[in-house]
Amino acid sequence: MRISRRTVGTAFVGGAMILTLTALAYPAMLGVQNTATGQDRIIANTKYGPLTEADRDFVVRVRAAGLWEYPLGTLVLQRGTTPAMKEAGEHLLVGHGRLDATCRRISQELGITLPNEPSPQQQQFVATAEGTAGKEFDSTAVTIMRVAHGSIFPTVAKIRANTRNSLVRQLADQTNDTVLDHITVLEKTGLVNHEQVTYQQTNPPKLPQDQTTPPPPQPGAPVRVLDVPEDLKDLETIAPNPSYGQPSPQVG
User: Cα–Cα distance between 122 and 19 in angstroms, integer?
Assistant: First the structure.
């Protein structure tokens, strides 16, 4: 049976590229020293409140998300074939640039070492989109990003509900707003297949930890900075109010 190149690509998008921000068992050397085994255990007491393993890992995940979505946003600006795709690229760059600034600031306050490179899985997301062009690029990039953003929502909500650290709480608020904005502009492209996205979000592939964990930074290496482009610094990224459909007909 002959399998087309497009079919192989679709199968990959439907499988191995799923779930960007899986739970990371991040090495202790990348954060504060690990003094507990449970994600809800306190690993440091700070002037901003206790810091748990889950708090620390959340900061790392948000940083790692920017390390792959920012370059993908650049690709979307360069290759997107519609104004809606260009808009999505702008929002990715601005949103993750602003989140990155917050991550870098609070990591210094909380003693969390940030990665400088995304995980191998996240690097593959970018490579998958980069290997396409035209309308195929549009649909591939949108699918990858929409699944990733939809998958992180439960994590953001759990952190926001449970953290007792005020800096982590602020990051969760900002992340929630950013994710909602990105989902909004991605859906505006008209390329989101909601059935496919739901399936991929609820059936993520089981990958080894070394594929989902960002590598540690080189000793003494400067922290990589994701700057908001100068011409986009004033971009409004507040997600718009939902546009409701027509009211249902009266019954009876």
Answer: 9
Asked if residue 221 lies in contact with residue 116, where contact means CB atoms within 8 angstroms, the answer is yes
Q: Say how far apart CA 165 and CA 34 lie, in whole Å.
A: 17
Q: What is the mean pLDDT of residues 42-71?
A: 96
pLDDT for res 188:
96
Q: Please answer whether residues 102 and 174 qualify as being in contact, where contact means their C-beta atoms are separated by less than 8 angstroms.
A: yes
Residue 172 structure tokens:
């969760």
Q: How far is CA 133 from CA 6, 69, 83, 249, in A?
A: 12, 18, 16, 44
* Three-state secondary-structure class, residue 58: helix
Helical segments of the chain, H only: 5-14, 53-79, 83-110, 120-130, 134-162, 166-188, 194-202, 209-212
The alpha carbon of residue 148 and the mean position of all alpha carbons in its chain are separated, in whole angstroms, by 6
Q: CA–CA separation, 99 vs 152, rounded Å?
A: 14
Cβ atoms < 10 Å from Cβ of 232: 15
Q: Between residues 133 and 251, which one has the greater pLDDT?
A: 133
The angle subtended at Cα 190 by Cα 186 and Cα 196, nearest 5°, is: 80
CA distance 35 to 52: 10
pTM recorded for the entire structure: 0.81
